[in-house]
Specification:
This protein is α/β, with parallel strands linked by helices. It contains four helices and six strands, in the order E-H-E-H-E-H-E-H-E-E. The chain is 30% helix and 20% strand. The two termini are 25 Å apart.
Length: 153
């Protein structure tokens, strides 16, 4: 199975609340660039899990548009910036075990890479806006996955 972790594109600081920060025009371009990235095998993903924050929803909508992804976008409050790796693992294990895209935030995304690959939340790659990490393994569990692809804009 594959777990594609994507950080939202660049977001504006002009918003009443952090959760309402929209993507900038450059952030939208970053997401489109990643959707067209030939180093990423976008085929076969069946689930799209998204933080409820505006910028992640906008990132996901652009992915759906440019990839022709017809699956549902599922919002989940556990994948916000202050989410916990153990809670995300529980979420993933409670769902069908299929190739999954998870659109989230820093610092959670780096922690998830470290958690799933090395068992250490501090061992994950630094992830800039619109960065993607593709992990693979037989189960979405701590220290049971490998980093296959890392793509920055």
């Amino acid at each position: 199975m594959r777990l594609l972790l994507m950080r939202h594109g660049e977001a504006s600081w002009q918003a009443a609340a952090d959760s309402q920060r929209p993507l900038t025009e450059y952030g939208q371009q970053q997401v489109i660039q990643q959707a067209n990235n030939k180093a990423i095998d976008w085929q076969g993903f069946e689930q799209l899990l998204v933080s409820p924050y505006l910028r992640t929803q906008q990132t996901s909508a652009l992915l759906q548009e440019y990839l022709g992804y017809l699956g549902a976008m599922t919002l989940n409050n556990n994948i916000t910036p202050d989410g916990q790796c153990e809670t995300v693992q529980e979420l993933l294990l409670s769902l069908p075990q299929v190739d999954t895209i998870l659109v989230t935030h820093q610092p959670l995304i780096s922690s998830l890479i470290g958690y799933f690959c090395d068992g250490d939340i501090f061992a994950g790659e630094p992830m800039m806006p619109a960065s993607i990490a593709v992990l693979s393994g037989s189960v979405f569990a701590r220290q049971c996955m490998q980093l296959e692809t890392l793509a920055h804009v």
